[in-house]
Amino acid sequence: MQVVRVDDEGPPPRVDFDEFYRAQWPGAVRLAALLTQDSSAAEDVAQDAFSKIQPRWDGIENPAAYLRTTVVNTARRWIRRRITEREKLPMLLPTGVSEPEADHIADAIAALPYRYRAVVVMRYYADMSEAEIADALGCRPGAVKSLASRALAKLEKVIER
After folding, report:
1. Around Cβ 60, how many Cβ atoms within 10 Å?
2. What are 17-24's contacts with CB under 8 Å, separation 24+?
């Protein structure tokens, strides 16, 4: 009689892309919204991230981590475009037109440089570990600690207690 051990059965069955999409969509949109500070752009960023993953689906070993990294990078590109738009927008708007004021804390976070903002959002809003943040940003966990410390110091100066 042959005894079959549980770990001899191979890796756990892999879910198909549709199941992964349904399970990960809410988290991807939430992460994108927190990074971009724009809920309407969050769905576009998340959708772009999924569309980048789908063609590579069979070769991805850790889809959830790959998705987080892709959302972070896609949000970074979106923010860069947004900064360019904001720099050019005053040239197009008539004088006296301004954007409505938003929550003071959200404004302070939005004013942070991208990497600082990404660390604050992923650490305190998305509840990600330093290792997960480092993986998503492509840096070391020590850099995440340093970025978080600098970001909090900047926020402390701006936000009154």
Report:
1. 16
2. 17/53, 17/54, 17/57, 20/63, 21/50, 24/63, 24/64, 24/67
DSSP string covering 63-100? HHHHHHHHHHHHHHHHHHHHHHHHHHHHHHSPTT--PP
Query: Phi/psi zone of residue 93: left (φ > 0), alpha (ψ -120 to 50 degrees), beta?
Result: beta
Residues 63-110: tens digit of each pLDDT: 999 999 999 999 999 998 888 777 765 554 455 544 434 467 777 888
Question: How far is 85 from 41, CA to CA, in rounded Å?
Answer: 14
- pTM higher than the cut 0.90: no
Closest alpha carbon to 138 in 78, 77, 69: 69
Angle between helices 104-111 and 141-158 (to 10 degrees): 130
In our burial notation (b when 16+ CB lie closer than 10 A, e otherwise), range 30-59 reads bbbbbbbbbeebbeebbbbbbeebeeeeee
Q: How far is CA 152 from the centre of its chain?
A: 18
Q: pLDDT value at position 90?
A: 56
CA atoms of 102 and 99, how far apart (whole Å): 9
